[in-house]
Fold this sequence. Notes:
- It holds the Pfam family Integrase_H2C2.
- One of its GO terms (molecular function) is nucleic acid binding.
- This protein is of the alpha/beta class.
- It has helices at 20-30, 59-68, 77-86, 94-103, 106-111, 173-188, 205-214, 230-246, 254-266, 277-282, 289-293, 297-302, 307-314; strands at 34-37, 40-44, 50-53, 89-90, 134-140, 151-157, 163-168, 193-196, 217-220.
- The longest helix is centred in the C-terminal third of the chain and has 17 residues, at 230-246.
Amino acid sequence: MSFYSKGRLIAKGFTHTYDIDYWETFAPIAKLNYIWDNPYLWRLCNDQVIHRCIPDTVINSVLQFCHAALGGGHYGSTRMARKLLDCRFYWPTIFRDAYQFVSTCEKCQKAGVAISKRHEMPQQPIPFCEVFDVWGIDFMWPFPVSNGHSCILLAVDYVSRWVEAIATKTNDTKVVVDFLKSNIFYRFGMPKALISDQGSHFCNRDMSSLLHKYGVVYRIATAYHPQTNDQADVFNKEIKKTLQNMTNPSWKDWSQLLEDALWAHRTTYRTPLGMSPYQIVFDKACHLSVEIEHKAYWAVKQCNLSYDQASKLRSR
């Protein structure tokens, strides 16, 4: 994909009308899979995808976008750096700069340690099942009242780690039944199994009737074996930590920020999986606002963000 040496082909879509001085100037970096396409420098990374090389002057802005802006979620440095790479950005010290940025984030310091790979669920043998075959479900409560809501009902897919959650006013059976039908069954299809704790809002006649109707096997995590539903417990803590970093000190706006926290979770790199839940479910990386703001390759080539092309069109 890079131009390798004078006279060789350049990646499709790149400008190729360069003079002798150009080749003499940029021949050394060509060997490292870099290419200059005015006004940006690009690099073909090990994943065989073209990444934009971020200059020193905007590194802090890119880090701010990916850590604290919409979809950031105040995650730890490793996940943050992986998200930047998923957004097709590159610079040599990306992991070190991400670590330094997170260590100076005021909200992360006030809330405690930023969410990192240490907060992943323990490694366990992966059961033979497909995405959305097995879900764990749990309630999080109580929270400070926010727009009348004081609970969160959360469900996590055991394979992809995809999380669905809603803010609720009560933690009763009707809320659970409506949530399963609207957010799980009608959206992702019928799972093979559902796992919950022994709460009365899960273990009751209405739930049994619903699951029997749709042919879903029901499993209960007992006090003697809480690992049965450990993924739901782990993500309870993670979503709560993310909301803590995103909300104001009074927590009055947490219900409005829940969807933002879920988006941050779904687009964040997961260590056991090697990719984000979004990538597993949709087989592609999620495009984030930082890619438009800081001109990722696809944005420049597909969204008319090329300065050269824009100037030519304006001059017509």
